[in-house]
Design brief:
Layout (H helix, E strand, L loop, with lengths): L22 E4 L4 E4 L5 E2 L47 H14 L2 H19 L4 H17 L7 H15 L6 H8 L3 H15 L8 H10 L4 H17 L7 H15 L10 H5 L3 H12 L2 H4 L2 H5 L10
Antiparallel strand pairs: 1-2, 2-3
Helix pairs in contact: 2-3, 2-4, 3-4, 4-5, 4-6, 5-6, 7-8, 7-9, 8-9, 9-11
Length: 312
């Protein structure tokens, strides 16, 4: 038995300087190093223990060998085994049965809604902050049963709409409709049912929407500035209360372009950029131009450009 023993160097004694106390065990790199002269002692050390890792945000002694970061909006673990719906009939049938039996009732609706919010927002390149806010709103709506029996996509669209407002990045119902492929009317119905419980921002000013539409129309900074000032005063006096923000924004841009005839050619593109019909733009403009003395900047009122604001 003694002949089968192989010589193994002592890892607690430095072979160069003879140091015995200051021997550092470098577990990260797998070496024992002399703390006095820096000599590496012996061969590479192999850690034969289990590779436990903790995926918790806080330092808890609860390691896990598998799994991703937990979803704070779900109360259950997210270790899923999904059956793919392939080309064959059997795989589609199994996938459908598995989806029905995997998670029932409100839990399944909650998870499907959270996944839809993530997918829709990723498609529109919406920031993670808005995604988290929309998912939180959707969980609140589900827990209070505010939209029981309503279309899931419409509820998700309403939550995204509110989240954009609360994060100071407002979108119109028309833009949310394009993102979610749900009719604007359906999103509006869902919003009316939940806004009193989850929307704390009130009526949104159209200033941010006006600035974005002006940028899409390639209008210069001067026109954008005047449009934003008119939008702020329109919101302050409440002269177009009850109309949708995209209609107000389109009418404001239409009015400003009338003040600058050299840019009037851009009016034909307003309905394409804003998604508002030409008839709605002109009708809103008629209601807006009545308050020109209250909403126009002083330099515009003193100039001859006011004469261009003829009624249509």
């Amino acid at each position: 038995m003694a002949q089968n023993l192989k010589y193994r160097p002592q890892l607690n004694i430095c072979t160069d300087c003879g140091e015995t106390e200051n021997i550092i065990e470098d577990h990260r790199n797998g070496y024992n190093v002399c703390g006095k002269c820096g000599v590496v002692l012996g061969n590479r050390i192999i850690d034969e223990t289990s590779e436990w890792r903790s995926f918790e945000d806080s330092n808890k002694s609860d390691p896990s060998r598998v799994g991703s970061a937990s979803n704070p909006f779900l109360d259950t673990e997210q270790l899923d085994t999904m059956i793919s719906s392939g080309k064959g009939l059997n795989s589609y049938t199994l996938s459908k049965i598995q989806m029905k039996n995997y998670m029932r009732g409100p839990k399944r609706a909650l998870k499907n809604g959270l996944n839809l919010i993530q997918a829709f927002c990723d498609r529109a390149f919406i920031s993670k902050t808005i995604i988290n806010r929309a998912q939180y709103i959707f969980k609140t709506v589900e827990s209070k049963k505010l939209l029981k029996g309503k279309n899931l996509e419409g509820a998700v669209g309403a939550c995204i709409y509110i989240a954009c407002k609360l994060e100071n990045a407002p979108r119109t119902f028309k833009e949310i409709s394009v993102i979610t492929a749900v009719q604007k009317r359906e999103i509006g119905k869902c919003y009316k049912l939940i806004y009193k419980d989850v929307d704390t921002s009130g009526t949104i000013p159209s200033g941010d929407i006006v600035a974005r539409f002006c940028s899409d129309l390639n209008l210069n900074l001067k026109i954008q500035k005047i449009s934003s000032e008119i939008s702020a005063k329109t919101y302050e006096i409440g002269c177009l209360t009850g109309r949708s923000p995209d209609s107000i924004a389109a009418a404001i841009i239409f009015l400003v372009l009338n003040l600058f005839p050299e840019f009037k050619d851009a009016q034909k593109d307003i309905h394409l950029v804003t998604g508002v019909t030409e008839i709605t733009i002109k009708n809103t403009y008629k209601d807006l131009v009545v308050f020109k003395d209250q909403i126009l900047p002083d330099e515009m009122l003193k100039s001859d450009r006011v004469e261009y604001l003829a009624k249509i």
